[in-house]
Amino acid sequence: MLRWLLSKSVRQGHELLKRIEKHLRAQDDILTIANRQKIEQAIDEFRKILSDPNTPKKRIDSAGIELALTADKYFKIYPNSSVRENVDVALVALVVALAIRTFFLQPMAIPTGSMQPSLFGITHQDLRGSETTNYPSIVGRIYKFFVNGESYYHVIAKEDGVFEGAGEPKQFLPFVQKQQFKVGSQIYSVWLPPDSLFAPPYNRSGIVVGQKFKKGESIIKLKVTSGDRLFVDRVAYNIRHPKRGDIIIFESTGIPNITQNTHYIKRLIGLGGETIQIGDDRHVVINGTRLDAATPHFENLYAFKTPPKEDHYSGHVNDKIGRQFGKPEVPHYAPHFSDGLAKFTVRTNHLFVCGDNTMSSYDSRYWGDFPKEKAVGRHSFVFWPISERFGWGVR
What we know:
single chain
């Protein structure tokens, strides 16, 4: 080992041996017996020279050249060998990346706002009529997208007209879509449109059929911010059980009454065997013990000082409080919890979860608990966009 550390020739010799032995294994089925024996003999001779502590540096270098020449003479020459080497390296890198994604850290995008303000889904801001807002230049838009995840859309009316509706987005390239809409006699196009640009549930454009526009007026002036991208720690739950307050990711497949074949992200509230209540004071009660801001991982969630509202920390609302402060068109906010006296017992080896944005979260208050084995990991690290939530700071 000391000789390997101190002698560059010895290190290079060992590296040469590795490469030639690798090629020998790769060509085992295409070399003739005689040629294989000659290469093996040259390898054995070089190994003896390399292992002798008294061999001078020059002899190691010259023996390495002899071994390389022998290998070049008897090995089969692959066509496009440099391409093959690059493909080999790329495949190894791909396998390593897939292994990391499968067993250690899996990237995930937050699609909705159910975890706001802890983690953000896709959000938008209608900039029409906001003359004080500076619309960024092309360079500014590129920078803001790659750093802050912000996309900007601006369409100006070419003539007076009425918005008559929009078509469905059409795919042109694997990651390129275009959506068209009509105002008056003009057809307008929006490239790379966000989801729900004109349609429910968000109608991010803010315009409706029949709305009138004058020439030069902004039909669409919109900022859309991408949802948080994070890494899921897939190792944690292989060495410990999920804990209350963890932000967990779980598979939806097989869980009744929710979208199948996808993943959900929520905060873990209840564990198997526990009885849960949601008080009219917006605090969860577990087996008679009330959670509050002193409970680990609930410091922000229970720091509210205002009536419950969307996109704010509002504790946990039951159906009574949700209907009192929520939207009239929403029939139920927590069907399993009609009021502060209603109780729900989590089944053995099951979990109960809620979104942090409890005024706008479809969670266990609606569809109940789910098997613990559905949990695939916990929140680890927000890697994009660069915001106050970037890194490990999310509680």
